[in-house]
């Protein structure tokens, strides 16, 4: 039987759950490059892939008539919510990884309809669709069955899906660390895990650099404590 954990308890216990998981954003950069110079009303081959990507992460409410390569009103709205992230770098090679979107809840404010969630760890070559638990976390490499393949070391760290999907996938090829003495070229597992579980629960990104849900994360840093903005966000989403 899968273990059960209340949402509030899950957030509080994240500090001591430093087992196997990790995060950033799925590989869609080539498709997103199609948007450079694009505007509403244009048609570009590959825009349907962008729509599918935004749908998977809760930013785009797609229907049958929208499965096209047309830059429509719904796509424009979704992109404003997503605010397409970039990978930032400075002259000292301090790379910051983009982690998925901008603050606000996911489109439509999806959330779990219960306070007791089951979870499990499952790592394999491919994702198994029939999941017995609400939240399924695991490490995967390259293509792993969800149409969002990982890209090896660097760039994409992991991805999570909006409620009530429950999937958390981490790139097994990254240089992860669970140590308090992290090196500059390592990614802290627990820091990224807390951020990703925020997405699993329905939180978008925060503009507050002190928040766990801030959109960017640098290698060699540890960020494991919830900020006031994180707490206020989850309370607002699950207030009733």
Summed up:
The chain is α/β, with parallel strands linked by helices. 22% of the residues lie in helices and 13% in strands.
Please provide a written account of the structure.
The chain has 240 residues and is an alpha/beta fold. The chain folds into 2 domains: 175 residues, Collagenase (Catalytic Domain) (3-Layer(aba) Sandwich); 57 residues, no CATH class. 22% of the residues lie in helices and 13% in strands. The chain is built from 6 helices and 9 strands; from the N terminus they run βααααβββββββαβα. A 5-stranded mixed beta sheet has the order 1-3-4-6-5. A two-stranded antiparallel sheet has the order 2-9. The protein starts with a strand and ends with a helix. Its cofactor is Ca(2+); Zn(2+). It comes from Gossypium klotzschianum.
User: Low-confidence segments, ≥5 residues, pLDDT <50?
Assistant: 1-31, 83-103
Structural class of the secondary elements?
alpha/beta
Report the CATH C-level class of the largest domain: Alpha Beta
DSSP E strands, number? 9
Helical run tally: 6
Shape: globular
Largest sheet: 5 strands, mixed
CA-atom Rg in angstroms: 17 Å
Give the termini separation: 28 Å
Active site: 196
Cofactor: Ca(2+); Zn(2+)
Domain Peptidase metallopeptidase: 108-240
GO biological process, one term: collagen catabolic process
